[in-house]
Design goal:
single chain; 294 residues; alpha/beta; Ubiquitin-like (UB roll); Rossmann fold; three-stranded mixed beta sheet; 14 strands; 41% helix
Length: 294
Amino acid sequence: MQSLETAAPRRDPAPSRWAFRLHRLWLTPLFRGLMRVGLPVFALVFGLGWVFSVPENRDLVAEQIAELRRSIAERPEFMVKLMAIDGASAELAEDIREVLPIDFPRSSFDLELEALQEVVEELDAVAAADLRIRPGGILQVDVTERIPAVVWRIAGQLEMLDAVGRRVAPLAHRSDRADLPLIAGEGGDVAVPEALDLIVAAAPMAGRVRGLVRMGNRRWDVVLDRDQRILLPETGAVAALERVIALDHAQGLLARDLSVVDLRNAARPTLRMAPQALEELRRIKALERGDALQ
């Protein structure tokens, strides 16, 4: 008689078909990545999506974030207590404080330095500005101020311009900046560099120069005392003015009774006599004709 042990079927040690397939699938890198990373991420995103789908939860989280930011921003080390301005005159510094109405103390997190810099640089008298927060809670404003180079008279108003023709500030009276040369006429602002070159060239007779007038937005007239004018050409104006000055030194050209020295046509420069000199010349010729008839 066979025993029970010998009668029971022996268990097959080989894995089942599904266990084999799952084992092979687990050995796949993509499947392992999905199970280790993808599934937790999906669960997290799904959970957050479910939480934030409720308006009350969104409001609560937003309030907590805002409160956290406020608690950090209002710490003493992040507070700006005052503003310091360097490189600007007293008048310009006052203008800067007017266009930057900041109530101190203010958190540095609430100050947009780039936007404030643009506001300062919009002032006519400011060539460039740099804003930064210094240790100690100081808003530092470093200013490069435009330097007036000429006074421009236009439409009965006076404006101070820098060396490139940018507006610096209005001027109430010419006598307030008598040290600056005077230019006038439409388009004078865009031709300031050429005007400054002419002023340098006219240095030998600086005491007689009253100013420059832009004519037709194309060329310059040099206005002298004694109601004299030098009409310069559109191109080569500096060279033409230097020739007139050389003639004046050699022959006393501008000391004569001339009202206009016209150099607009380089091939045919002309001179126009003053009215009183012209009248005297006519009288002399009339007398000469009278003597000839006698």
